[in-house]
Design brief:
With 234 residues, this protein is of the alpha/beta class. Helices cover 33% and strands 20% of the residues.
């Protein structure tokens, strides 16, 4: 795979076989050549779990204290006109019942979070095959199925995000924008690590967090000092 010049320049700045603390890694990533947009910073974990086993699924939510740096596009499905109006007033880009479901069934996915009230989940269940693989299916575990959809909208706007292990035992979590201050990124990274540790399945054996990397959208991953970071995590 041919890498861009910016990517290669960033990779060359990394010390061979070195691992970094969060403050060091943030400095390194922010020193990489800039691109024409504000890149998203991402924290990636490789975990010692078997995602094929249902009792080793790692999934949860976390509220980033400094937000994601992105205004989330939230859609709400509810049969209540009052709740739909309140959700839009709270910041949802669209809310409704059958009209929203019909748009999604025709291939509309121009949103980041889909929330719903419990009474419409049977209708949304018919779209599970297309919403599930995209990570957009509302669920009680992620907090996106609730009677109080206004609260859901407000929480997402404040920086609440969902994370889930993939089939390769990796978890990818956005932790802000490259333009954030070091303190903002550090605060977000620390709460994400705590959330992932708390989501450890009881059946997971051996080393749980095998590796961690911090990267920006267009840059190489910076390997983190797992032992040092976990030692400082409460």
């Amino acid at each position: 795979m041919q890498r861009s010049k910016r990517y290669r320049q960033g990779a060359e700045a990394l010390k061979q076989d070195a691992t970094y603390s969060f403050p060091e890694a943030i400095d390194v990533v922010q020193s990489f050549p800039k691109v024409k947009f504000d890149e998203t910073m991402e924290l990636a974990f490789n975990l010692g779990v078997d995602p094929k086993k249902s009792d080793q699924m790692v999934r949860g939510t976390v509220t980033l204290p400094n937000g994601t740096g992105k205004k989330p596009r939230i859609v709400v499905v509810t049969a209540s006109e009052d709740k739909a109006s309140a959700a839009v007033a709270a910041g949802a880009m669209e809310a409704g019942h059958q009209t929203v479901i019909d748009k999604i069934s025709r291939g509309w996915f121009d949103f980041d979070v889909l929330a719903a009230t419990p009474d419409v989940m049977r209708d949304l269940g018919k779209l599970g095959r297309i919403l599930g693989p995209k990570g957009l299916m509302p669920s009680p575990k992620s907090g996106t199925v609730a009677e109080d959809v206004v609260r859901v909208v407000q929480e997402v706007q404040k920086g609440k995000i969902e994370f889930k292990v993939d089939r390769h035992a990796n978890v990818h979590v956005p932790v802000g924008k490259k333009s954030f201050t070091k303190e903002m990124l550090l605060g977000n990274c620390e709460v994400v690590v705590t959330a992932v540790l708390r989501a450890k399945p009881h059946t997971a054996k051996g080393q749980y967090v095998r590796s961690m990397t911090l990267s920006s959208t267009m840059g190489p991953g910076v390997r983190l000092d797992v032992k040092g970071i976990l030692a400082g995590t409460k």
